[in-house]
Amino acid sequence: MLTVALPKGSLLTDSIRLLQSVGLDFSAFLDSSNRQLQILDPTGTARALLVRTHDVPVYVEYGQAQLGVAGYDVLREKQPRVAQVLDLGFGKCRLSVAVKESSPYRRSLDLPAHGRVASKFVHCAREYFQRLDLPVEIVPLSGSVELGPITGMSEAIVDLVSTGRTLKENGLIEMEVLFESSARLIAHPISYRLNTDGICDRIAAIREMTTTAV
Amino acid sequence: MLTVALPKGSLLTDSIRLLQSVGLDFSAFLDSSNRQLQILDPTGTARALLVRTHDVPVYVEYGQAQLGVAGYDVLREKQPRVAQVLDLGFGKCRLSVAVKESSPYRRSLDLPAHGRVASKFVHCAREYFQRLDLPVEIVPLSGSVELGPITGMSEAIVDLVSTGRTLKENGLIEMEVLFESSARLIAHPISYRLNTDGICDRIAAIREMTTTAV
Fold first, then answer.
1. Rounded mean pLDDT of chain A?
2. Which pLDDT band holds residue A34 (cuts at 50, 70, 90)?
3. Same fold for the domain at A2-91+182-209 and the one at A93-180?
4. What is the ipTM of this complex?
5. Is B37 near chain A, with CB under 8 Å?
6. Cβ-count burial of B140 within 10 angstroms (0-12 exposed, 13-18 middle, 19+ buried)?
7. Tens of pLDDT along chain B (214 residues)?
8. A93-180, what's its fold?
9. What is the edge-to-edge ordering of all strands in the sheet holding A183-187?
10. Measured between CA atoms, how close is B13 to chain A, in angstroms?
11. CA–CA separation, B58 vs A119, rounded Å?
């Protein structure tokens, strides 16, 4: 049976709407009283798993789901062995370097060598500063990264920015963009190649519904 | 100024009550309308940071907070360079191996070699199975680990158990305990040694209020 891994949080509603448009109804996950992590489409032909956004690529990589929706930011950070098949166009944001507005820094290269950069995106941040040939210490945080510069623990942060409201509220400004992100449809590579459970038809239908292909 | 890092989530209320009993009032964090991540004690002599449970040791290790409250499970998993100064006695739980009740496994050593074990506690799980000389593949998940065996992705999980309700609801049973956990008071090693901001007196007062020392 076709199984789709769906991410909890901000991408969920758009993901479910898109799948509904191609005949897969997992809207039961949008019911606030729902406690199930696994549901069947009413037609009984497909199943969905509701998992943390960082876990979607894990379920798809291990083949427990043939399809999944994940942010490009998560895919860049975790580098899972999955096929990225479509840019779904929603969930747009960017991974950016930000500093305190009161700081003297306006470009990444202004940051002091061996300074500290707090981030949830440790891999992406490390890769970025290595490419700039700027040695910094990445401080791994799991949330509220904006506290890094506020408390003086780090000179800068690397974090996702969508509206910019959180930065503004915390007196931070965006300096440079590492990359733009959006939701991607991912597939288990072998299922994709072998067209298991007719996933290629599903992907084609979803492609029709979206505008931008990767 | 003395800064204390407090964990969001299940340890917060007990942490705040304990600090109140030694004259540090951070109860503003318990107000559901509070959005601040940083507050002062009403006497203006101490500050608290409200951060994710996994980030408490980071703030303490980097010296942005001299004291913090963290679960022993987090300390075992992340191995931060902090001083563990007190067992606070609350937040009791255990890190355990669990499997589907319908599985043939009843001890960790029954698990098949090269089987899969899903966990948020990748480091602890790896260390445990290495000690057993049982080669398994650890599947890193960030939440809802119980889905691992349910979907067939893993034979077992290593996860925190407190009441056992989540396991039961998902048809899983606890096989073996890796270790017992509870909330710990941690300190920045240098601040502790130099008694910065009189933290040794604070620790002594907190010790008086708790029963078990580490």
1. 95
2. confident
3. yes
4. 0.90
5. yes
6. middle
7. 999 999 999 999 999 999 999 999 999 999 988 888 999 999 999 999 999 999 999 999 999 999 999 999 999 999 999 999 999 999 999 999 999 999 999 999 999 999 999 999 999 999 999 999 999 999 999 999 999 999 999 999 999 999 999 999 999 999 999 999 999 999 999 999 999 989 999 999 999 998 644 4
8. D-Maltodextrin-Binding Protein; domain 2 (3.40.190)
9. A38-40, A46-51, A2-7, A67-71, A183-187, A83-87
10. 20
11. 12
Q: Is A9 on the interface with B (CB under 8 A)?
A: no
- Asked if B141's CB is within 8 angstroms of A62's CB, the reply is no
Nearest-CA residue of chain A relative to B60?
A153
Nearest CB partner across the interface for B144, out of A52, A139, A140: A52
Q: What type of residue sits at position B12?
A: L
* CA A93 – CA B154 distance, rounded (Å): 33
Amino acid at B36: Q
Strand order in the sheet with B2-7: B38-40, B46-51, B2-7, B67-71, B183-187, B83-87
Which of B144, B150, B154, B157 to mutate to probe the A interface, most A CBs <10 Å?
Answer: B144
Are residues B69 and B10 in contact, defined by beta-carbon separation less than 8 angstroms?
Answer: no
CA B51 – CA A121 distance, rounded (Å): 17
Alpha-carbon separation of residue B104 from A135, B110, B154 (angstroms):
51, 8, 14
Q: Where are the domains of chain B?
A: 2-91+182-209, 93-180
Please write the tens of the pLDDT for every residue from A108-138.
Answer: 999 999 999 999 999 999 999 999 999 999 9
CA distance A198 to A2: 8
Check CB contact under 8 Å for A58 and B139.
Answer: yes
Distance from CA of A154 to the nearest CA of B (A): 10
pLDDT of A64 > 80? The answer is yes
From the list B55, B141, B150, the residue facing A38 with the nearest CB is B150
CATH code of domain B2-91+182-209: 3.40.190.10
Cα A8–chain centre separation? 11
Q: Where are the beta strands (DSSP E) in chain B?
A: 2-7, 38-40, 46-51, 67-71, 83-87, 93-100, 116-119, 137-140, 156-161, 172-181, 183-187
**The tokens of A66 are what?**
């043939």
Given a cut of 80, whether residue A35 has pLDDT beyond it is yes
